[in-house]
Amino acid sequence: MGWAVACFNAAIDAADAHRVAVINYYQEACCLSEGTERSRYYYQGACSLSETFSENYSPTETCRPCTQCKGLLRMKAPCTESADAICVCDYNYYMDKVTGDCQACTLCPFGHGVWTECTEDMDTVCEPCPEGTYSDQESSMDPCLPCTICEDEEYEAESCTLTSDSLCKVVKVDGNLFTILPPHKQEEVETLLAEKSVEEDMDWCSLAGLLGYQEEHIDTFRQEEHPVKALLSDWGSKDCATLDALCTALRKIKRDDIAERLSPEPTATSAV
């Protein structure tokens, strides 16, 4: 039986590139002596790719079925002839070490940012946004963002909070003068201009004259529910309207107090 063993070993060497379950080798593959019976050793073939696998090199061990990644699992590595598929939790999920189940990644709430992103085996780690940063959405990926610092030609209409960024507006007249002023300043300017001066003449009427309006046009503003707002809104739509021009006219009627209120408020800048 020495020839049979040698033939069997040759078959194993020939199939070295495959993980085999059972050898189905016929006598035609070897040079056998006349009169000998066909070998009962047989080579059944390698494991089916993506369907079965065998981790051990053995003529007797049967191929095992590949693991199927289903439900909340996704395939990290495919099944091969020599290794099973590797399944991990799907994106936006992580493997709970206690239950062994896939759990949804935690979303950091408003005012909190991601310190460590969620991975296949670890949940999200959140942190409260430190001073000078904010987070305006729930997320399992985004960190706290730095607050916007308004440019020199802008003013801060709304301050940065833990849940919202700074709101910066450009200091210029564009279609409507009052779009550059926050609501509380608009009301303040309207009130101050509507007050009567010592000469019993309304300041806004004097201002209207300096801005180029004739008496009949000023009369139309008087008919409005809010004449000062109507005046400034109309004048602000003109090409010649600028904040400097308005402040100059205000100073001519000795209303420097209002001119100063129209100036943008200084914004704090961080020291470098």
UniProtKB/TrEMBL annotation:
Official protein name in the record: Tumor necrosis factor receptor superfamily member 16
The entry's keywords: Apoptosis, Disulfide bond, Glycoprotein, Receptor, Repeat, Signal
Family annotation (Pfam families): Death, TNFR_c6
TNFR-Cys repeats: 46-87, 88-126, 128-168
Organism classification: Eukaryota, Metazoa, Chordata, Craniata, Vertebrata
PROSITE patterns: DEATH_DOMAIN, TNFR_NGFR_1, TNFR_NGFR_2
A biological-process GO annotation: apoptotic process
Gene Ontology cellular-component annotations: cell surface; plasma membrane
